[in-house]
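Recap for those who missed Tuesday's class. We walked through two folding examples back to back. For each one, the amino acid string is listed first and its predicted structure tokens come directly after. Nothing is annotated here on purpose, so try labeling regions yourself before you check the end of the notes.
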Amino acid sequence: MGPESWSIEVFNGEFPATAWRDSYRQALVESALTNGAVSWMWYAHSWGVVFEVTFAGEEAWERWRDLPGTRAALDSVPDPVNGLLVYRGKGGTSGAPMPRRPRPAPGAAALAIEVPLDEDYVSVDRIDGGLDDPYATTSPVAGVAGAAASPVTGVAVAE
């Protein structure tokens, strides 16, 4: 069987997880290396620390995990109730093994939405006051009795 990576995440609690790491770092790394670890790495985050360790096989991991020194270190984390995660694989903040490719947009994303027109909609056209008098205030509107163009907008209004 190939190498097995494991992660131990320790969260801040009554005291910072970095203080826990500083207290147990040497003992954990030394015991891991003497019990079959092939690599190890510490990561510090705002929420705590992560100890990633890779063993030659699962049996070596289990041997190291059952050592009294390892158990004592894991039992003394800053938050003994919710402050410890131990799991197979790289830490929770490690990237994906393959970069994600952008997915194409769904076909409907490129189409305009057709808006139905209301049957009661009435179009009001702008009425020009005439070329001779650009300041004309009224202008007859064809077909509408008592209508004239607004002096400001030129839109037909009823009088």
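Example two. Treat it independently of the first, because the proteins are unrelated.
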Amino acid sequence: MSTMPDPSAARRRYVTVCVLFWLPLGLTIAPLILLLTERGLTLAAIAGCFAAHSLTVVALELPTGGLSDALGRRGVLAAAGVANLAALTLVALGTAPWQLGLGMALMGAGRALSSGPAWPAAPPRSPPRSRAAPCWAAPCPGCSDSGRTSEPG
């Protein structure tokens, strides 16, 4: 088992993972909206494309985390790269709204595939507990051995 890193190293690693995961998405939103408006999409259609992206991420977030655990992080990250490459190709070359929507949905699938392997690099929030006894099994003041509260008296 690995030991827990010191708090400053854990915080630094967590911030680095967060920045590397969310900064590219934040930097691409404005140019992507401009690109989609140049392709003739209305703001409602652009919102539909982003909804396809978001709903795909929501639908695939948990299953891809399990897939990362089952198949390994490298394979899932490679699949995320392939999905992102296909998505960027569709968005870059697509002119029809269905092509752009499909590209955004594939971009969401790639995003969900990449998040499963990325977050284990971040440190856990609290140290793991011992599995010997649950936290509620410790004796508390005012409790008898059977777990019922004792009557004052």
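Answers for example two:
The longest helix spans residues 7-38.
Residues 7-128 form one domain.
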